[in-house]
């Protein structure tokens, strides 16, 4: 949470972990042994009253929860999000299991067969490396580096592989009514470029372990140990060169630094040894005159590496990316070795995640708007959607008031900000029109083939947008997803049904709790429209400077305060948060809680006692409405995680860790201190704090 992402097959499968059980078909015994308990919103049992909330609010709100909820062996992080995601996943599993056993409609048969193919470990073990041999044969046919672009196109088109770079159709950030081609850096296997370039002992050890892992995988594929070791060195050499040419992810947060409109000829000039026209023709993306090259320097570095690397090294790199992508769909030994490095070594996970969980999630990624149709019928009733719409309206009104009263912003910029807020589009629960999967072929006995076909289905669906009007009703997350997002190019806020459940939202609870839960989520997504990235987009989703120069300077001064503040928050020994990387999410957290609290206060002022019917002498369960609001908010971020996971996320995740999302936010908000009677100078009510919105 609350991020702006769309999970893709390649990312999902590259970290896929399976329990190597031998099953024939679909066996309920291979599934869950019991239904996960339903999370609750405002959990009294989670509170540790031995802690002073003014000293450490996170431990106060979550202390007992943290003690009772260690990280499960098949996870790397356990949080309130995971609690709900596990339950949603279980409910989705029951739907998929029924569809696999006895489908009632052609659509159910399609996603039931996808799930069944994934669950069939007997077949995977029987086939061994057979499913991946066609792609290896294709790569072996590469005889000249001049054929590389055509080879990459074939690997992408036939086998749904991603290597060297990414190509997609996106909205033009200077004219959001247009959809253009976008090319961006890629081609790395480790989580971030820093893993290849940092010279501390921990990073060097991880790189050595990565090379050992690649070697083992090539041996499993059938190479001699000596040949496998040479190939692994080639992979590391090429990926290191690509990492050196890659733009830092913090710099990529600035839309101005990832926008470079070029002709194909100009792109060709950046990388003259790579035949772009051949690639673009073979992937069938359609005709266009210009494209956005997000990372020009990367394509120069890619060209240099293609020129300097041997043909055999390049083929090793291609073979590795094909193997890494396919390994989770292959036999147990590939699944185990994939887990050993990417999950156990890199993230600290102790056991592989049960196969039924992974197959459920994989099916949701592949056919989310098919399986989601039945899911929302059962778990997101119309009254929940109606109440959610009321909450969104209340938050929009509060944000409008916040903009109007903002002390540092000029009237001219306030007019622009209010215009952007008024232009927000809201998407709640699920799409108006469900995606059509009729063109996607699914086979019950071909898991890798299903992954390839579904990935290519999405790729071609994306390519088909080129030159077409933008579909403002399209969703970037599936209905059961426990998340939410704001899209700057469409200027809309999106709340899947999956997050509109306890511990975030509960129709039966008092306003204080729901505003502290889903209200702060709504406020978070709205504030994204005005964070360091979103504030550069206008109401139509175009990058345009609508702040006055003086207001932008004041804004930057305030966001710099947050950067410095969050830079000081430690997540592991020797590892702090990156205040620049997490700036947008931190700004959204801090702004979201303010406008949610303001919206609650307006409701309480208007409705009086009728808003809180179960309160006695201004309290319920011993807490005021304001205290219940903050406790609910704090409990959203209860989280345990492995040290390895904390380190990975500190380098790659634009979100702060749970502890600092709770503490960093309340210590910047005076109303928290007032609610709990804190004194100025206590940790949660410092003398100096940061505020943007």
Strand content: 5-15%
Could you say which overall geometry the principal axes of the C-alpha atoms support?
Answer: globular
> Radius of gyration from the CA trace?
25 Å
The number of helical elements comes to 26
Helix fraction bin? 40-55%
Biggest sheet descriptor: 4 strands, mixed
- Secondary-structure content class: alpha+beta
What strand line-up does the widest sheet have? 2-3-5-4
Q: How confident is the prediction overall: mean pLDDT?
A: 94
- Count of extended strands: 11
How far is the first residue's CA from the last residue's CA?
Answer: 19 Å
Q: Unreliable stretches, pLDDT < 50, 5 or more residues?
A: 1-29
Oligomer: single chain
Topology at a glance:
Blueprint: H1 9-14, H2 57-68, E1 77-79, H3 80-101, H4 106-119, H5 121-127, H6 133-140, H7 148-159, E2 165-172, E3 175-185, H8 194-197, H9 201-221, H10 225-245, E4 261-263, H11 264-270, H12 276-282, E5 290-293, H13 296-308, H14 311-326, H15 332-347, H16 355-379, H17 382-405, H18 411-422, E6 425-429, H19 447-463, E7 485-487, E8 492-496, H20 511-528, H21 549-567, E9 570-572, E10 575-576, H22 583-607, H23 625-635, E11 639-641, H24 643-652, H25 658-666, H26 670-676
Parallel strand pairs: 3-5, 6-8
Antiparallel strand pairs: 1-11, 2-3, 4-5, 7-8, 9-10
């Amino acid at each position: 949470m609350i991020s702006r992402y769309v999970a893709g097959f390649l990312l999902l499968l590259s970290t896929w972990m399976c329990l190597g059980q031998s099953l024939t078909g679909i066996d309920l015994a291979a599934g869950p042994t019991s239904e996960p308990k339903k999370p609750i919103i405002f959990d009294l049992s989670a509170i540790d009253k031995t802690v002073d909330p003014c000293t450490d609010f996170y431990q106060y709100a979550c202390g007992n929860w943290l003690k009772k909820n260690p990280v499960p062996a098949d996870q790397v992080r356990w949080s309130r999000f995971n609690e709900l995601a596990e339950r949603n996943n279980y409910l989705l599993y029951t739907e998929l299991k029924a569809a696999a056993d006895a489908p009632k409609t052609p659509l159910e048969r399609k996603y039931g067969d996808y799930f069944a193919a994934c669950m069939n470990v007997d077949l995977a073990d029987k086939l061994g490396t057979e499913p991946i041999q066609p792609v290896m044969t294709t790569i072996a046919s590469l005889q000249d580096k001049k054929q590389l672009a055509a080879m990459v196109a074939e690997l992408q088109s036939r086998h749904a592989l991603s290597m060297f770079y990414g190509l997609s159709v996106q909205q033009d950030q200077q004219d959001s009514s247009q959809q253009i081609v976008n090319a961006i850096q890629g081609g790395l296997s480790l989580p971030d470029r820093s893993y290849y370039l940092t010279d501390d002992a921990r990073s060097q050890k991880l790189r050595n372990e990565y090379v050992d892992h690649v070697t083992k995988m090539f041996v499993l594929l059938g190479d001699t140990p000596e040949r496998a070791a040479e190939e692994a060195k080639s992979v590391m050499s090429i990926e290191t060169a690509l990492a050196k040419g890659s733009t830092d992810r913090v710099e990529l947060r600035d839309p101005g630094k990832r926008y470079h409109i070029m002709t194909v000829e100009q792109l060709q000039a950046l990388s003259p040894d790579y035949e772009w026209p051949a690639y673009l023709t073979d992937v069938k993306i359609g005709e266009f005159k210009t494209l956005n090259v997000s990372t020009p320097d990367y394509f120069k570095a890619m060209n240099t590496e293609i020129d300097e690397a041997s043909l055999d090294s390049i083929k090793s790199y291609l073979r590795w990316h094909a193997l890494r992508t396919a390994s989770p769909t292959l036999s147990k030994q590939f699944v185990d070795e994939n887990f050993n490095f990417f999950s156990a070594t890199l993230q600290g996970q102790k056991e592989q995640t049960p196969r039924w969980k992974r197959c459920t999630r994989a099916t949701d990624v592949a056919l989310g708007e098919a399986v989601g149709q039945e899911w929302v019928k059962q778990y997101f009733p119309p009254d929940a959607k109606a109440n959610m719409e009321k909450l969104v309206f209340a938050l929009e009104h509060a944000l409008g008031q916040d903009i109007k009263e903002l002390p540092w912003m000029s009237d001219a910029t306030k007019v622009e900000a209010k215009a952007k807020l008024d232009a927000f589009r809201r998407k709640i629960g699920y799409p108006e029109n469900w995606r059509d999967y009729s063109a996607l072929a699914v086979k019950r006995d071909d898991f890798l083939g299903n992954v390839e076909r579904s990935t290519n289905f999405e790729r071609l669906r994306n390519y088909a947008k080129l030159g077409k009007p933008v579909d403002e009703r399209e969703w970037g997350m599936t209905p059961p997803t426990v998340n939410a997002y704001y899209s700057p190019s469409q200027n809309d806020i999106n709340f899947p049904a999956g997050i509109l459940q306890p511990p975030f939202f509960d129709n039966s609870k008092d306003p204080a709790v729901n505003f502290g839960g889903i209200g702060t989520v709504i406020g978070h997504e709205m504030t994204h429209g005005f964070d360091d990235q979103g504030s550069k987009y206008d109401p139509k989703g175009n990058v345009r400077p609508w702040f006055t120069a003086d207001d932008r300077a004041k804004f930057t001064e305030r966001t710099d305060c947050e950067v410095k503040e969050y830079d000081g928050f430690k997540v592991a020994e020797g590892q702090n948060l990156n205040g620049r990387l997490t700036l947008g999410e931190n700004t959204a957290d801090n702004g979201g809680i303010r406008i949610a609290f303001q919206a609650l206060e307006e409701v309480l002022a208007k409705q009086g006692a009728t808003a809180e019917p179960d309160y006695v002498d201004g309290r319920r369960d011993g807490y005021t409405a304001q205290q219940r609001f903050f406790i609910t908010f704090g409990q959203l971020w209860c989280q345990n995680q492995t040290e390895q996971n904390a380190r990975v996320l500190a380098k790659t995740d634009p979100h702060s860790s749970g502890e600092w999302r709770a503490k960093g936010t309340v210590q910047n908000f005076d109303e928290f201190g007032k609610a709990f009677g804190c004194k100025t100078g206590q940790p949660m009510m410092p003398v100096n704090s940061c505020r943007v919105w």
